[in-house]
Amino acid sequence: MMSELAAPARAYARFRSAGAARRPGPAAPLAALVAASGLALALLAAPPAFAQQADDAPSQEERSTFEMLDLFGQVFEQVRREYVEEVSDKELIEAAIGGMLRNLDPHSVYLTEESYDAMRTNTRGEFGGLGIEVTMDESGYVRVVSPIDDTPAFRAGIEAGDLITHLDGEAVQGLTLNEAVERMRGPVGSDIVLTLIRSGEEPFDVTITRDQIRIESVRSRTEGDVGYLRITSFSGQTQAGLDRAIDKLKEELGERLQGFVVDLRNNPGGLLDQAISVSDTFLDQGEIVSTRGRDPESIQRFQATSGDRADGLPIVVLINGGSASASEIVAGALQDHRRGIVLGTQSFGKGSVQTIMPLNRRGAAIKLTTQRYYTPSGRSIQAKGIAPDIIVERARVEVLESAEQRSEADLRNALDNDNGENGLEDEEAGVDDRSVDDYQLARALDLIQGIALYQGKAAD
């Protein structure tokens, strides 16, 4: 068995000797390397009963692990000794860790102390930058999941699905997602030029001025007798903001309230517990979401509690290709329970859960994909997304000019209305010469009003 320790031992000895040759004094601190060797040793650790079988050869998997650790040691040593420029051990080891996680999936990443702090700031709902949620595309470009409402990126016209190819003229291919995000951050008031590829268009540049990003995760307003709820992200303040918005709409509309439109378009997601809480706001019972890890037995189910804050009124949920992760949990839960009608276009399709795992090393952490999530009916939306109940593409509708038309009231000797109305006074009633900029919202409002009208007639 001891012979099997030779590979990592040789690698570690080479690291120490290389460090000693590279600079005087004690060998360079190689805590991460020691940890790697410790991992190899831990694979051989066993209870006493196993230790007595010292002559047993390790498994093929263990042997392969030792060989790969030795290979890593050889590459590490060659790079630190022969690379054209001097690179610190820290840079090499962090790059190796980042590469290991990056090759798992687009969402698993190594977080340095700086990026970990930035991520925690983001979930609190206030940070500096451009105001876009991004992921790494298979092409190596940075893909925009969605712009955040009322941010520099939103005002500059950045759209979900845009591919960022260059930052200030420098290619993003070859950068990690964290590195690209860090380059997009900068002093408030400073400019950055993004080169974008948009479907069906030639590449073009957009100049954006960085600003302090303060996310108001829930906004609301009345649309006629319908309550409009816009949820831009799922941060730590989302549920509290939603409760305040619902109370305000109920107070303003009273018994005239016909229903709610919950707008999750371009909402990139956020905290799982907030998605569960928001879903529970509109559900009275049943499962909201389940998560499943690598172990088939490790299933977590999250249930709704009694109490529907919408009081059973109709709900329409708006989604699009920028609705991801936590947004899809909410849309899927309300859709499966038939509590809301989902309207819009196919969502992004991020059906995995990432766990933040702090590390001992000076505030660093890893964000690791640990589970997939499933809607109440057992659907996985990973790489598929939520399909809306009613597909409504983004469009802009204008009222067309029409030739003047005559009505009964215009005819000579037409009979008067026996209620004393002849229709002439309201000749212009119902004519709306305004364009409809948000066609999806207009359709959602029509749907709510139609349901309310039908229910009112049925009650009569």
Count of DSSP helices?
Answer: 12
Structural class: alpha+beta
Summarize the biggest pleated sheet. 6 strands, antiparallel
Portion of residues in helices? 25-40%
Through-space gap between termini: 85 Å
Description:
By secondary structure, this protein is α+β, with helices and mostly antiparallel strands. The protein has 3 domains: 2-87, no CATH class; 126-214, Pdz3 Domain (Roll), CATH 2.30.42.10; 218-391, 2-enoyl-CoA Hydratase, Chain A, domain 1 (Alpha-Beta Complex), CATH 3.90.226. The chain is 34% helix and 21% strand. It contains 12 helices and 19 strands. It has helices spanning 6-22, 31-44, 48-51, 60-82, 89-102, 113-124, 152-155, 177-184, 238-253, 272-282, 326-336, 439-459, and strands spanning 109-111, 126-129, 132-136, 142-147, 163-167, 170-171, 191-197, 204-209, 211-214, 218-223, 226-231, 259-263, 287-292, 299-303, 315-319, 341-344, 352-358, 365-374, 390-391. A hairpin with a 2-residue loop joins β5 and β6. α1 packs antiparallel against α2. The longest helix is centred in the N-terminal third of the chain and has 23 residues, at 60-82. It is elongated and about 105 Å long. The model is unreliable at 1-9, 11-52 and 424-434 (pLDDT under 50).
